[in-house]
Specification:
This protein is of the alpha+beta class. The chain has eleven helices and 20 strands. The strands form six sheets. A six-stranded mixed beta sheet has the order 2-8-5-7-3-4. A hairpin with a 4-residue loop joins β3 and β4. It starts with a helix and ends in a 7-residue tail after the last helix.
Length: 384
Amino acid sequence: MIKSCNITELLKGVEVEWKTLGEVAEIANNTRKPVKASLRIRGQIPYYGANNIQDYVEGYTHNGEYVLIAEDGSANLKNYSIQWATGKFWANNHVHIVQGKPELDNRFLYHYLRNMNFIPYLTGGDRAKLTKSNLIEITIPIPSLHVQTAIVCILDTFTALTAELTAELTAELTARKKQYNYYRDKLLTFKENEVEWKTLGEVAHYSNTRISFDKLNEKNYVGVDNLLQNRAGKTDSNHVPKEGNFTEYLTNDILIGNIRPYLKKIWQAEYFGGTNGDVLVIRPKNDLLFHRYLYHVLANDNFFEYNMQHAKGAKMPRGNKEAILKYHLPIPPLKEQARIVEILDKFDTLTNSITEGLPREIELRQKQYEYYRNLLLDFPKAEQ
């Protein structure tokens, strides 16, 4: 494992000269171009656009090691789209093609640019643009090539370790999710005469209470956009309403995205708040079932498949509220419901929680990498 003390020794007393990117790199934009229609067939050559590899095509425009920098992107991005390309590739005219001169290690440039804030160099509105004239004015720290090579070696090693650990954790997460799905299907599958069956409308109803906009904020306002796919809960909202009344939800109510049901957007409320007509708020109306048991039933694939079968619209299908209330669900005794909830909640925490379980481990690995990257690339600028 890389130690902070070794990094400190590496950088101790290092002299750094700051130069513009135009001084230390070649910008090979004259050879970038959209891929020809005749070559837009699947091949072996990566075709890079502004944000990532867009396709694999025949033919290429570059061959070698380059740093690719997006020309277009979001003005809200702190870390701009930076990619590493090696070998033969095709780059379109929304990508800057950059290659370091002899005094600048290409890979060092890649790591440094991934760590910098591009916002001061962008022009335009929501669709920001990084022009070549602004690109060449970006200043880069230039330590000796020996130090650059050492930094690259450390960061490449750590990148590989992080990628390996993340791959292992992701594989484990995928396996746990499959296990979770298996047990959820198994625990929620009953024969017709094994338990009592009721329609959703017999045991629950949609919220019919309203809440004023002034009681809503980024955290407790839920729109369909900030509900996450595949039962992953929700994020804070970027669009809090400034006027009007909205559907109120209470703690433990179940919120389901009603647009494109196949996205499986569902969240059990942890506090009160409000939502709009694109989100259903479902609340038990008697003591026949636990809130959490109802959540697991509605988070099951069977419900989302039923919802899609009765959805209205083709391009943007919307769940049929009347049909949803006719969905049949098993009602085992409360003791059995509690047992099912206990088992499924353990899997839910392990696979979906952002503060516990495997997703947290993956996030920590990324933060660990970013810590060492910042430590190695935080060169002080000389006082003017």
